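Bench log, entry 3. Co-assembly request; chain sequences pasted below exactly as received.
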Amino acid sequence: MENHFLIDSDKLTQTALEKKHRLETDPSSRIDHMKYLPGMDVIESDVCEHVMKEMKSYDYSKYTATDVRRALAKDKCDIEDFKALLSPAAEPFLEQMARKAKLETSKHFGNTVYLFTPLYIANYCENYCVYCGFNCYNKINRLKLSLEQIEHEMKVISDSGMEEILILTGESPTKSDVEYIGEACKIARKYFRMVGIEIYPVNVKDYKYLHECGVDYVTVFQETYDTDKYETLHLMGNKRIWPYRFDAQERALMGGMRGVAFSALLGLSDFRKDALASALHVYYLQRKYPYAEMSLSCPRLRPIINNETINPLDVGEKQLCQILCAYRIFLPFVGITVSSRESAQFRNGIVKIAATKVSAGVSTGIGDHEEKYTGKNQETEAGDEQFEISDSRSLACMYDDIKQEGLQPVLNDYIYVS
Amino acid sequence: MENDKLVIGNKEFNSRFILGSGKYSMKLIDAAIKDAGAEIITLAVRRTNTKEEENILDYIPKNVTLLPNTSGARNAKEAVRIARLARELGCGDFVKIEIMRDSKYLLPDNYETIKATEILAKEGFVVLPYMYPDLNVARELVNVGAAAVMPLASPIGSNKGLATKEFIQILIDEIELPIIVDAGIGAPSQACEAMEMGAAAIMANTALATAGDLPMMASAFKAGIEAGRKAYLAGLGRVLTRGASASDPLTGFLH
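Structure output for the full assembly:
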């Protein structure tokens, strides 16, 4: 079954509707998604070539139980072993994979689980990505927080005890320019020990500027590494340019960031190939930038406002667990983040196996933390959410739950030194 | 044995077990002190730089010496900044230099470590550099003012034991400072072996943190380290190889 992404709002003008339909139905009306736009940095890198070569030749149906057993018996997992662990042949070995993954996690991270919270500061967007609640044709309440409002939100979050924040925006370089994001990050440095961003990809000099503003971690989701599929989902805006997005983490490291995070949005395309490519993106970039810290996320498609039916298709919780165990066994040193897109039950289980970081006290809306944290009625307007979350536990609740599982919650393990 | 103290800087210690900082939990700190008898506990400055309610600093008794480390530093300059911050936070003058330019194996950068040791020793810190066991580097660390040398046994967190045994032995034989074996010690038997070789102390973390019964493993480490130390002090018996018995001296003709 396919997802039905294309929803028309009755609030769109006739002209807008016509343009939307043309983009959806006529591929020739869309720009070349593999060609950089003017002003976009083009960097020298062979990482993409390596990743794509492995992904394209990956035939997961050819792996057998013997390959999986061999991979599980080995001390160090290579790319071939990883491919076996991601294949359907590994599904009956999920428990063994989980046990091996747990061992690797404890070797590298002990019993610790890091906590963070995302903060959306604006939801304006110039892209038309058909599955996303922020897409420019979806009629939602749009909002961009003023610097005063940002400070207020950060204070509320900081008062809850949180020490790491991930600042997010919709992808609108006009409404939320780099200077605006930089100012938000400077405020964040006052309240938090660790500041990360998940914004539209920018050039090296902009990453450098944001690093100077206090940011040390950059998250960019590639959504899917299947470029043909990508073209049919990201119909308009800078995000359409697939290779510029692929190189974002490398540009961020060139700009001086300490770490970078990666992910595919599972459910958009063939999830086994996307999982392979995400991990290899980390693997090859790590070889080139051995000092960089790296982490992987594993988001699955979620329902959005005006389209309740969007779902992750064939990526069930078992498949997700398999992917995360395979990630851990192949890349024992990387952080693995599991967001509030997943249920409390799943997250409680996976932190004991492979995940090292979870979000808490999450809102994917704009400017609504005080209401969500304290129940106090909001005087100002709030902006709508990017997607529905599954786990709305507060920081205090999450902290206690992690302890209950016999693990050690950690709010900060970071120092900004450059 | 009563007078057998570990001396680092101007401090004396009875215990030769040092708790590392990689994987922390309050339970681990508790077991290290109560069951392993640790008198020195390493802590990552980056983790104490926190406002969190369960600040690790609050859990460490006053009679335990803090050994802040510079984990997170990628070069000498960053390590120096972190060490100074540790002093400002009230962690004392001890500092363990950890400089890694590799996020996969977390191997120390010997070159940058020498640079940081020199700067910090001049500023009055008691510097314990974590290093890859290389005799020339160890000699240089002595020259620039290190208080001890901390060679790695095997990759950190690996529990693989004394993979660098021969090279650690060379450091023990040639360097006057205490040689504290750090990283990779996965079992009390390995800790015992390093102590028999003449190591001054053992630093471990993962082996305890990932044990099934934490307090029991902590006390097992204590016993292993003490056994190794005693054997070293007692002087290990000769290992006779076949045919090498000296009953018929080869040099008898000289008389």
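The first helix of chain A runs from residue 14 to 25. Chain A has 16 helices and eleven strands.
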